[in-house]
Amino acid sequence: MKLVLLGAPGAGKGTQAVFLKDKHGLAHISTGDILRQNLKDGTELGLEAKKYMDAGELVPDELVMKMMEGKLASLPKEQGFMLDGFPRTVRQAEFLAGITDIDGVIMFKVSDDDIVKRLMNRAVCRSCGAITTWDNDKCPSCGGELYRRADDNEETIRSRLKVFHEQTEALIEYYRAKKLLLEVDATGMPEEIFARVLELLES
Ligand code: AMP
Predict the structure, then answer these.
(1) Does position 77 have pLDDT exceeding 90, yes or no?
(2) What is the per-residue pLDDT across 1-54, written as a single tens digit (0 to 9) for each?
(3) Ligand 1 residue neighbourhood (C-beta within 6 Å)
(4) Is residue 122 domain-resident?
(5) Range of the domain at 170
(6) Rounded to the nearest whole angstrom, what is the distance from the C-alpha of residue 203 to the centroid of ligand 1?
(7) Any idea what the CATH number is for the domain that residue 16 is in?
(8) For the chain, how many structural domains are there in total?
(9) Mean pLDDT score of the chain
(10) Do the domain assignments include residue 69?
(11) Span 182-202, average pLDDT
(12) How far is the centre of ligand 1, averaged over its atoms, from the C-alpha of 103 (Å)?
């Protein structure tokens, strides 16, 4: 199965990807994670991407498409995957269509107000990468130290939401027209949302 996870930043794509990975053995490919790893490793791509990421803007299509082409080519032929955070523009979606076929696109629907609240309360584990909240003082999965992502501040969250509405939301119609869109109500507890996702995938 080859899926695209679509939704605003903080809609829960990453959290649901972990559930799906455990249940269906799909590879989880997050463009944001790959870019942050490049930043950490001090690669040319990471240094170039930093200014856009810090401002909550999209990294230029050319850079992200090249990065994803390499990543997808490195997967074993039969390996199913979920793309988390890619595509984010119609150009990226057209590029993706040229290199592989997608079986479905799950759109996680949450209001902007909920997104801001969620992202302001999002904590990430430094050891295992689990996504949790500041209601915990350490990672509930492994006990590791928690940190706040550099772009999880109110100003950058607002920019990221604006970018989502202006550049990424068009993908909803793009994929609906291709009859690939599966919309899920992404409010509530992660487990409840996952139950809805499974129901959608089975239907
Ligand atoms: P995320 O972890 O998905 O919220 O992504 C964090 C940041 O990485 C975004 O705000 C963008 O600056 C950049 N980014 C991630 N995926 C893409 C993409 N497909 N196209 C352009 N920029 C991206």
Answers:
(1) no
(2) 999 999 999 999 999 999 999 888 999 999 999 999 999 999 999 999 999 999
(3) 9, 31-32, 35, 52-53, 56-59, 64, 85-86, 88, 92, 151, 160
(4) yes
(5) 2-26+80-202
(6) 30
(7) 3.40.50.300
(8) 1
(9) 95
(10) no
(11) 95
(12) 22
Token pair 């590879």 is at which residue?
A: 27
Q: Rounded to 5 degrees, what angle do the CA atoms 116, 118, 124 make? A: 125
The answer, yes or no, to whether residue 203 has pLDDT greater than 90, is no
Whole-model pTM? 0.92
Q: Is residue 68 part of a domain?
A: no
Compute the distance between CA of residue 124 and CA of residue 144 in angstroms, rounded to an integer: 9
65: in domain: no
- Residue 55 alpha carbon to ligand 1 centre in Å: 11
